[in-house]
Amino acid sequence: ALIALLPGDGIGPEVITQARRVLDALDLDLTYEEVPVGGVAYHTLGHPLPESTLDVARRADALLFGAVGDPTCDNLERSLRPEQAILGLRKHLGLFSNLRPATLFEGLEDASALKPEVARQIDLVIVRELNGDVYFGEKGRRVRPDGAREGYDIMSYDEHEVRRIARVGFETARKRRGQLCSVDKANVLETSQLWRDVVIEVAADYPDVTLSHMYVDNAAMQLVRNPGQFDVIVTGNLFGDILSDQASMCAGSIGMLPSASLDDAGKGLYEPIHGSAPDIAGQGKANPCAAILSAALMLRHSLGQAAAADRIEAAVARAIRDGARTADLGGTMTTSAMGDAVLGVL
Amino acid sequence: ALIALLPGDGIGPEVITQARRVLDALDLDLTYEEVPVGGVAYHTLGHPLPESTLDVARRADALLFGAVGDPTCDNLERSLRPEQAILGLRKHLGLFSNLRPATLFEGLEDASALKPEVARQIDLVIVRELNGDVYFGEKGRRVRPDGAREGYDIMSYDEHEVRRIARVGFETARKRRGQLCSVDKANVLETSQLWRDVVIEVAADYPDVTLSHMYVDNAAMQLVRNPGQFDVIVTGNLFGDILSDQASMCAGSIGMLPSASLDDAGKGLYEPIHGSAPDIAGQGKANPCAAILSAALMLRHSLGQAAAADRIEAAVARAIRDGARTADLGGTMTTSAMGDAVLGVL
Ligand SMILES: CC(C)[C@H](C(=O)O)[C@@H](O)C(=O)O
Ligand SMILES: CC(C)[C@H](C(=O)O)[C@@H](O)C(=O)O
Questions:
Q1: Where Mg(2+) is bound, by residue (chains A, B) (predicted)?
Q2: What are phi and psi of B292, to 5 degrees?
Q3: Which stretches of chain A are DSSP H helices?
Q4: Angle at A251 between CA A85 and CA A105, to 5 degrees
Q5: C-alpha–C-alpha distance, residues B13 and B248, integer Å
Q6: Which residue in B306, B301, B248, B303 sits closest to B272, CA to CA?
Q7: pLDDT tens track of chain B, all 346 residues?
Q8: Which of A217, A267, A339, B304 has minimal CB crowding within 10 Å?
């Protein structure tokens, strides 16, 4: 299988190097093409998502992505900023479904701001829609008749978009504890009311899954109060952005958590949930576990290699249990030393 | 001064009764008119915000509000649901600025899901815009050419709306520790980009306040990781809805926290941040502290009675320190016993 490697900006290259080492150690039949993306692509090729990168991404069976984000690009017009690369990849490749598991690794109770007895209960997956919502609706600036500047963004979902992500939510819940919580703001938003109506329609095909609904403000409270109550959460692009970052932090370091963004044929982009962390880039301080675990998700979801994925995940869990700690976890290990620790277990 | 009392649904009447007792004990020159709102208004007068209620609200100097929300109204069309009453009051009365302080009361470390050393640092105010954003833009359902149902909501802000709430944010920060964090999603939304541009313009008038910017997904993480880093957060209606509920929960029980919604002349609506809690309504289990503290905010912000407000707040803090606990705080006190405890200190 062909893997597109997109290390990107900041700590992206460092963590992807370690993920690659782990993949290499498993002796799978994989080939790689590495291409620039984000700020580094803008600086070398004039665009955060160059055609040449998109070509490789289209041809690849799966994409392993580091991070994008580069402060030197802050004043560029929106379409040239690094973040547009990830939004563009999601849209061009039809990666509509984002899976974000959040669990607390044994031994990392101290890394979470939550009380250990609360944090230990966290074992959830957020299923976030990635191709619609206020992210991709018409947006712009206008000057009103009275001369005032105004910014606007249209939020919307149609029933097809909701149905396909709802199915992913129900399927994910079915393979876990059978509890799906759909998060919306139906008491205020028409987009949410349609969302809720369609999710209820889809529920008819999943009698074995228990469906509940929660307003997003309440969900943000409940994720702090008692995150253990959730099995699978399905939600739109904007609410998913907020809640999945919140849930990751509840589980401790965001240096530990991977994500998968999938199309409807199993092709996917895999990336750590952390960003490019320019403040520590190039210093060997970044935690490569999220990238390594993203490689595991890739093996499982896009390459049919569930056993290899299990091995990687077990190795990371074991290394952590044995005390391996990068700076974000309160330790002093370098990025490559953490890679060594995982490889040592493997 | 004339106070409009709007007890509303669920536990609203119980907690407002206690707030009223506390106000009465202070011998202030206040008169009250009590009017129905929410589900109870719908059931008696056919509308969640009847004209007669709105009239009193308009005439009053300040509004003390319990809660709205009534499960028997769940299947009504949107415009008749209880929540529309609070949205209508905010809009009709021009209550554009919502202040939500969040602090951990001494003795309530156990009530927070956060580690005590993290929770104890919380001392922040969220300033949320209440009259614009995707809450009040055009919204609806439509059927697309291919027959698919679609829901949409227009998010927007104009520069006047941003400027006036930004000023409230800066003024609030100036009276506290001088740190203002503006939360948006400017990497994706044009509405947010305008928001950020205007906040930066307003900052020129407040050289004594340190302004920072944070994306909403990061803010949701940081409120868990290290809420003590925030002094004042200013944000739009939707992000404010989510983050303020999250922040309250970080601080422990939502039974303890009040809010103020103000117009530009100091008139305000004061309400607990908790909802109508239909599951415990009428059982004397509700914590009246948030309502009592809302009355204190009313005295301070709308009635120029800062000393009386201080007295109430000190009395609540003292009662809690002395061990007064309703069920939400892990105790067994009834609603009126908690009222007695506060009155006892006063
Ligand atoms: C970088 C940004 C555009 C992106 C998003 O908002 O989707 C990020 O926050 C994420 O969650 O992957
Ligand atoms: C009831 C609802 C419409 C309201 C809101 O979303 O503003 C509530 O959540 C709040 O925060 O006061």
A1: 217, 241, 245
A2: -65, -40
A3: 12-25, 39-45, 51-59, 83-92, 116-119, 159-174, 190-203, 216-225, 237-250, 289-301, 306-321, 335-345
A4: 105
A5: 22
A6: B248
A7: 999 999 999 999 999 999 999 999 998 999 999 999 999 999 999 999 999 999 999 999 999 999 999 999 988 988 999 999 999 999 999 999 999 999 999 999 888 899 999 999 999 999 999 999 999 999 999 999 999 999 999 999 999 999 999 999 999 999 999 999 999 999 999 999 999 999 999 999 999 999 999 999 999 999 999 999 999 999 999 999 999 999 998 888 789 999 999 999 999 999 999 999 999 999 999 999 999 999 999 999 999 999 999 999 999 999 999 999 999 999 999 999 999 999 999 9
A8: B304
How far off is chain A from B42, nearest CA to CA, in Å? 16
- Rg of chain A over Cα atoms, rounded to whole angstroms, equals 20
- What's phi and psi for A259, nearest 5 deg? -150, 155
Domains of chain B by start residue, with CATH: 1-99+254-346 (3.40.718.10), 123-250 (3.40.718.10)
A83 close contact with B: CB closer than 8 A? yes
pTM of the model: 0.96
Radius of gyration of chain B (CA): 20
The phi and psi torsions of B267 (rounded to 5 degrees) equal: -75, 145
Tokens found for residue B292: 């009592």
Contact call for A154 and B159, based on CB within 8 A: no
Structure tokens at B206: 């407040």
> Is the distance from CB of A272 to CB of A67 less than 8 angstroms?
yes
Distance from CA of A254 to the nearest CA of B (A): 9
Sign of CA dihedral B295, B296, B301, B304: positive
CA dihedral A222, B328, B346, B307 (to 10 degrees): 0
In Å, how far are A9, A209, A289, B85, B283 from A70, measured between CA atoms?
Answer: 7, 42, 22, 45, 56
Ligand 1, pocket residues at CB < 6 Å: A 83, 86-87, 241; B 187-188, 217
The C-alpha atoms of residue B169 and residue B156 are separated, in whole angstroms, by 19
